């Protein structure tokens, strides 16, 4: 038996996704931009998927731009928003625990002369509404914040952003990175007051290499505001080039196959509670995130002389258990999220992330708990 518990990094494609991608590759392989029947049939599938994703966000079809994934969508959002508003101000408000694609984009914009405010989390990874309201002012042109943190599952105060912008009489556009929230909690663009929303297919049992950026039709972003690519009319010229119709169709199929969020959340919350109960019985294990975090993510410190990378390798090679020590995009670097939370080096070096999906079971959690118990007994902290 194996246990895949790294769903915040990627998820196993669902059967509906696989069937949709296979059908496009085998039977519907025309260029969506071609005007003959093969192209028209492919474009119909692209339109159906665009509609599916738009409806899932409470948006219109015309407000969805396909990208290669969350990283590209975040880059487009930050650079596009700032270039669209640069004559109105220079402040960007984000947090110190965003995904690397947002942090590194913000750091680049800082080099270009923009002022970036990085809101700092507390010991549990929380950002307060008070911090947000204090940071947004009349000079703020962008607020970018993830809905759910990808390492510790913190639920961020995104629903307060619109109020903070309004109170400050700010011209800011609002970007919400919903990669870890999409398909797990209801997301309605208009109710959130979001101008830009990032989503990704491979976090919801869709294919890798495809994501989307929601752009509010009233956000006044034109293609000139982005780091442009020339050579085609596709995706409103924001991302020209032949559409990846198989991946887009797989994305749409994965969205259509999603379990109702309330039903899925109840199941995953039960799994989370069971995992906390079983892991809490192991002497020395500490939880780095609170029970009020997203039930899809648990972050724990392992009391062993091994570092987290070695723990991952041991779990993978000897027990068939797959977890992570943070964001896959960080390639094994120390977690900037746990660092920002003020955790000590011992915790930073020996923490792992466990992340669930609707296919996980209590048996997999038992397998993990037993493996960790055995690892700690074999490689106790006292050997340092």
Account of the protein in words:
The chain has helices at 15-26, 37-56, 70-85, 100-111, 129-135, 161-167, 189-192, 245-256, 261-280, 308-319, 336-340, 345-349, 362-378; strands at 3-4, 64-67, 91-95, 115-119, 140-146, 173-177, 196-200, 211-215, 286-287, 297-301, 321-322, 351-355. The protein has a 7-stranded mixed sheet with strand order 2-8-7-6-5-3-4, with helices on both faces. The chain has a 3-stranded antiparallel sheet with strand order 9-10-12. The protein is of the alpha/beta class and 384 residues long. The model has no long low-confidence stretch (mean pLDDT 92). The chain is globular. It is 39% helix and 14% strand. Helix 5 runs parallel beside helix 6 (161-167) and helix 10 crosses helix 13. The longest helix is centred in the first third of the chain and has 20 residues, at 37-56.
